[in-house]
What does this fold into?
Amino acid sequence: MDLIIIGVLGGLITGISPCILPVLPVIFLTGGAQSAGFETDGGVIPARRSRPYLVIAGLVLSFSLVTLLGSLVLGLLNLPQDVIRWAGIAVLLILGIGLIVPRFEQLIEKPFQWLPRRNVENRGSGFGVGLALGAVFVPCAGPVLAAIIVAGATGRIGLDTVLLTVSFAIGVAVPLLVFALAGRGVVQRIRAFRTRERGLRITAGIAMMALAVGLVFNLPQYLQQLLPDYTAGVQQDLLDSPQGESLGLGGLVTDENRDLDKCANDATELQSCGTAPQIRGIEEWLNTPDGEAVNLESLRGKVVLIDFWAYSCINCQRSIPHVVAWNKAYADAGLQVIGVHSPEYAFEKNPANVAAGARSFGIDYPVALDNSLSTWTAYRNRYWPAHYLIDAQGVVRHISFGEGNYATAEKLIRELLADANPGEQLPAATDVADNTPELGSTTRETFLGATKALNFGGGATYRAGVTSFSFPADQAADTFALAGDWDVQTQYAAPASGDAQVRLRYHAREVRVVLAGSGDLTVTDQSGASQTISVSGTPRSYELLSGGSGDAGEFTLTVPAGVQVYSFTFG
It folds into this structure.
């Protein structure tokens, strides 16, 4: 029962999120375009009232099949993963033209003339429209959908996965059905619509074709970027709920990764947690010959350390020096480090940005660009950074989430290397300072994007859009405030026109800020001393404070137009 409830709730949340906006006009219009009826010499013949339900039924069916079986079937046929999407776009274009040009509609119906006329008459059924929409409808990938996609990609589709998929699809369908019925209701209540079926058909056809063209150029993606995901917090609450935890929605529990639960986080001794899941869904590999992929099975006999990281993550930046040191010390002794770069921000999906970040950290071991978070979800991971230590037989023996406990991790690496190559002399242990801050000893990581805004102490409502802010008379500790005109976007905030300011109150030994764009930013501390930061090139983390006392402090940043502020991180 928990599985069905979580599926429906996940679908309902998705069904009211910004990611459904591109399909709403088509749902609204096709739900009502033929509900008006059509004119004949004998008068207006009403269309079937079931059309909105058939549109949504077709969408639910095709979306469920594509999500569950699409990747599996295309893989078996050796076809590109985008085939289904392009087929759906083509069908939308054809149906849209058919709504506008009756003769074309008759032409595409000819192959089905052996069927009873009522089953292919577009005026009576929207099932075909729904099938096409389901093939191209890709909702926001919350935890429930991520779990379903992983199951489909691995081909391990059981009754639980089917129930989760169907319940999710039903949850999504409820808000969409409301819009489809609203379209029918509007048409039926306005007499002019009831007698002008031709105009409605043309409008619906244009909307369908516009959606198809928009999908070709990824316009829905840009639309979603302009609007805040007001359901993000609810999605996270669902993931963190007891039901979500029990279902492993951070990454679907499969036979491949089920035994990972046998590894306790940061255990002091080696454990046995099942064969390591394969690395999959990688867009590109860095630091391998000719960009070749690395297969875990080919590394049998070696000890493998998989490090999930993101280049602008402050926690990862403190962890990476330890991983780099282990790679340099133990590579010749049989250790293979693999970095799985799992982006938190959109700009972290850019291969050039990741490559620049890897170079700046001295990373020369293989890095997999997991932009779709396929490997992330295969390992049921939820953390930056996260380390999975695998022995020479391919079994996961240790898992560590977050920072710290590096001495224990290195001790276990050395034990596995000694087991794999008995009698071989290992180099001396590495000596990298552990700069992990104590829990509660620093200000929390602070995001300026509308969907993840934390620690705003400016008094006004903080939401997406252009807003004029002013500093409060009394700003709380561990918060930020804004002054001037700011354009708050989903992932960052930027001056709307001219210079604007951010005032940060913190307690930490180290303070960094993630910036993008181009321009000179001025930073002033509480004593009045100032420094200038030149922002350009790859979006990345810039240092504001290093080696501080850990006491409370304050910075005021004067940000020029053309620079975007993503977040503050503390150490």
In short: Residues 34-47, 114-124 have pLDDT under 50 and may be disordered. The two ends are 43 Å apart (CA to CA). The chain is about 40% helix and 20% strand. The first helix runs from residue 2 to 15.
